[in-house]
Write a structure and sequence with these properties.
seven-stranded antiparallel beta sheet, 5 helices, alpha+beta, 15 strands
């Protein structure tokens, strides 16, 4: 049994058959795109925005190094939302150009495609840190209270909850149930070599850096400007210097060549049961 660690690893979800977006076609379609709306996310707060299928949105650093926590939902059905865990399983722990953000079961379809990323050069550093991670869940007041015994109301979870409640008119406790694990935009993270604990370090993001997405379906988004600022020292407090983030939404003059709106997953949802009972019998 001691020899089993020598058996080579196997990728859980080989993606050779996964339909891949034509990134050159997506980028060509953005030539001449027109600004439709600008949303400013204040420091230590969150804001919602809506994007139609076939529009592009960018998240941009505008004043100083700042990371953000991104939630996405189907604009017409909040039960369909960004599934960070499955996106991580398909694309890896950190996202960049050409990767897609996938929705929750049972639809499991692309919600957005990353078309440009000005931090694509960073990749992974000597500590194993990378940008735009899917491994952190979002800073939240519950974990903060568990570890410190204190209440802090401007964690990303609370920021996203307030923003969604204000956007939808849902009571705060109902809106909170729709807030989910995030894409940590601009955040530099990884796992320590010795204890394999989740770490954060100073983000390389500078004013003018952005990550750009093509909306594969009608989206409702919420973005929190994390109270950790560039996450070089602390979060879940007012100690870090924080800056706003900008969300810009664009209309395209034409759709990418060959593009079709994303469709729901083809699984029949029978889960092995038919009208005649268990199919295995």
């Amino acid at each position: 049994m001691r020899s089993r660690p020598e058996i080579p690893p196997v990728v859980c979800y080989p993606v050779e058959t996964l339909p891949r977006p034509d990134l050159s076609a997506y980028r060509a379609a953005t030539d001449g795109m027109q600004l439709a709306e600008t949303v400013i996310v204040p420091p230590r707060d969150a804001a919602c925005f809506e994007v139609k299928a076939g529009q592009v949105f960018r998240i941009t650093s505008v004043e100083g190094p700042q990371v953000g926590d991104l939630n996405l939902w189907n604009a017409h059905d909040l039960s369909e939302r960004f599934y960070s865990g499955k996106t991580r399983a398909l694309h890896g722990t950190h996202l960049t150009e050409g990767h897609q953000l996938w929705s929750s079961f049972p639809t499991l379809r692309p919600m957005a495609t990353i078309t440009r990323d000005t931090l694509n050069w960073y990749r992974f550093d000597a500590d194993g840190g990378g940008i735009h991670d899917l491994i952190g869940t979002r800073c939240d007041p519950y974990t903060h209270h568990l570890l410190s015994g204190q209440n802090y109301h401007y964690c990303c979870h609370s920021n996203l909850t307030r923003a969604l409640a204000a956007q939808t008119g849902l009571p705060l406790h109902e809106a909170e149930m729709h807030v989910h694990d995030v894409l940590n935009v601009f955040m530099c993270t990884g796992f320590t070599r010795d204890t394999q604990q989740y770490f954060m370090k100073a983000s390389p993001v500078e004013p003018g850096d952005y990550i750009e997405f093509f909306a594969e379906m009608d989206l409702l988004g919420a973005l929190s400007a994390c109270p950790g600022g560039d996450c070089s020292a602390t979060h879940s407090s007012d100690a870090a210097k924080c800056y706003p983030l900008e969300v810009t939404i664009y209309d395209l003059q034409h759709m990418p060549e060959g593009w079709r709106p994303s469709h729901t997953n083809g699984y029949d949802r029978s889960h092995g049961i038919s009208v005649f009972g268990d199919k295995r019998r």
